[in-house]
Write a structure and sequence with these properties.
Elements lengths: L34 E2 L1 E2 L8 E2 L7 E2 L16 E9 L3 E12 L5 E6 L5 E3 L1 E2 L5 H14 L7 E3 L5 E6 L3 E21 L5 E19 L1
Length: 209
């Protein structure tokens, strides 16, 4: 199975294919096997930029505090005011260094797993986490989940030119938004606003560069 995040590139076979790989000048021998990526140890990035993400978009916040004729159910809610660029929580990192004078094929395989959950830049309760997820699913990304654990054994293939290196990151995409939690009263009035950046996992895959 091959999956990925990011912008397609030349000579790559991943669905959301590796970027930054150019076509080889000369071909590798036909009997060469793909070179397996070497793992990179250490702490991985929690917010790696995803190539090809669209610009951030601001949402209008023009809902009146007391809409006419609307019966309000008091409670806590979350309002999105900005759709921010998505990032990836890296769960596994690998690379291939090609020291040969011709291009070679490579294969990356995810060999570590990790979990990303709904969260925010401030401390939130479980109830607010549910409200954040509901807002993200309804307004931005229907595939968002409360929790996502990445898989092991997901492969990506490509080609690395002579005397160069290709790096691969496997992880979970985070739908990032900005907004505020608030309490809605029985007269539809908003109170106790608290602004925050929030996120929810929505997919997993490779970013190759």
């Amino acid at each position: 199975m091959v999956t990925g995040l990011g912008t397609p590139a030349v000579a790559a076979t991943a669905v959301a294919a590796p970027m930054g790989i150019t076509a080889p000048v000369s071909a590798a021998p036909a009997d060469d096997e793909p070179v397996e990526g070497e793992p990179v140890e250490g702490e991985y990035e929690e917010d790696l930029p995803i190539p090809g993400e669209p610009p951030e978009v601001k949402f209008p916040d023009n809902e009146p505090d007391t809409p006419d004729g609307l019966e309000c159910k008091p409670g806590w809610f979350f309002k999105i005011t900005q759709n921010k660029k998505n990032t990836m929580s890296v769960k596994y990192r690998t690379f291939v260094e090609n020291k040969k004078n011709y291009a070679v094929d490579f294969k990356f395989t995810s060999k570590k797993s990790g979990t990303t959950e709904v969260g925010a830049s401030v401390t939130i309760s479980a109830d607010i986490g549910v409200k954040i997820l509901g807002s993200i699913k309804a307004e931005v990304e229907a595939n968002a989940k409360k929790s996502w654990t990445s898989e092991i054994g997901i492969e990506a293939y490509g080609r690395v030119k002579a005397k160069s290196t290709v790096n691969g990151d496997y992880g979970i995409g985070k739908e990032n938004v900005y907004g505020y939690k608030y309490h809605l009263g029985s007269a539809c009035q908003k109170s106790n606003k608290q602004y925050m950046t929030a996120w929810a996992p929505y997919r997993e895959g490779w970013v190759i560069k």
